Amino acid sequence: MGGLEKQRVRVQACLMVATIRRQGMERELWSVLYHIATACDEPQPWRRETYRDSGIIAVYFWAVLHDRPTCWACKPDHWPEDLRPEKLPSQPTMSRRLRTTEVQRLLHVMEQVLLKSQEPGWVAAVDGKPLVVGPHSKDPDCPWGHASRGYAKGYKLHAIYGASPMPLAWELTPMSIGESEVAARLIPTLGGGGYLLGDKSYDSNPLHDAATHAGYQLVAQRKRPRAGLGHRPHTPGRLRSIALLQNEFGQALYRCRDDIERHFGWLTNHAGGLAPLPNWVRRHNRVQSWVQAKLIIHAIYTRLQQPPPLTACA
Q1: Is 20 exposed, middle or buried (0-12, 13-18, 19+ CB in 10 A)?
Q2: 300 in any annotated domain
Q3: Domain range spanning residue 182?
Q4: Helix (H) or strand (E) holding 287
């Protein structure tokens, strides 16, 4: 065997080992996803469906885990024999069922299971992550808007994170929607209480008031720190935030805001995570489902890397 042939064999062997390792992690993630979906899928005998909601979700997650379109997971050749369902739904069936209220409810229940598997803590952070698409995209749902250091076309993931890898609350919007506008909708949905940390774009009296009513103290840097407060009245929450950032405790607390950057960084930095949106993931409903699946996958991946194990539905 010549030198080039030996190198070719070594390269093929390395690629095969890498593929096996990648499939091992994806198989493990999918198995946990399937277990949670099945445990949370309550039987509904009055519904006559060929495929259960958990089966639809399992096929969709197999495609998302491999960063492939849904039609890819509808083909038997793309499944290992020991994991492949007895009968796979067609792509039109997947498209129709993924939009149903029942499947969306099951995905929400899975989110809550993952969220409640870890104590939320008393410090949370709010921020937005741009999901940029190409400037020549014909998607009518993603106008131009403010992104990091400039303007871009696409969507934006707005999230409030606590200690759990699953966001306490999140919403997907076009890039043109402001972060403070979405935060005003997310904050009232929070439970519990504590401190909520945000950057200067969240420094507004209405947001401070909303956080106070939700049981949180919003701590955000002032938009114009060198200007005075003027003659207009300010909410007690905003005055408290200004006072906190002037003492040692508040400054140490505010440094915890960097945790949400780490959440976003890890979300996009592993196999099966939220990579740049593929070309086939366009229009708001598809991007919403894709991001939701990636958030669930990431929460499971994080817990598998950092035990204790997950607790599924009772």
Answers
A1: exposed
A2: no
A3: 120-267
A4: helix 284-305
- Reported pTM: 0.86
Residue 182 and residue 80 share a domain: no
**Closest C-alpha among 143, 161, 208 to residue 180:** 208
The pLDDT assigned to 6 comes to 42
Give DSSP secondary structure letters for 3-66.
Answer: HHHHHHHHHHHHHHHHHHHHHHHHHHHHHHHHHHHHHH----TT---SS-HHHHHHHHHHHHHT
Considering the domain boundaries, does residue 299 fall inside one?
Answer: no
Task: Determine the residue type at 141.
Answer: D
For strand 150-161 and strand 123-133, is the pairing parallel, antiparallel, or unpaired? antiparallel
Residue 150 lies in a domain: yes
% of the chain at pLDDT higher than 70? 87
Instruction: Indicate the average pLDDT of the chain.
Output: 86
Q: Domain tally for the chain?
A: 2
- What is the C-alpha to C-alpha distance for residues 173 and 287, in angstroms, rounded to an integer? 10
Tens digit of pLDDT for each residue in 77-135?
999 988 888 899 999 999 999 999 999 999 999 999 988 877 768 999 999 999 999 98
Q: Which two tokens stand for residue 132?
A: 């940029």
Mean pLDDT of the region 186-197: 92
Among candidate residues 112, 152, 102, 94, the one with its CA nearest the CA of residue 128: 152
Per the CB < 8 A criterion, the answer to whether 218 and 180 are in contact is: no
The Cα–Cα gap between 211 and 205 comes to 10
**Quick one: DSSP state of residue 129?**
E
Give the separation between CA 296 and CA 110, rounded to whole angstroms. Answer: 8
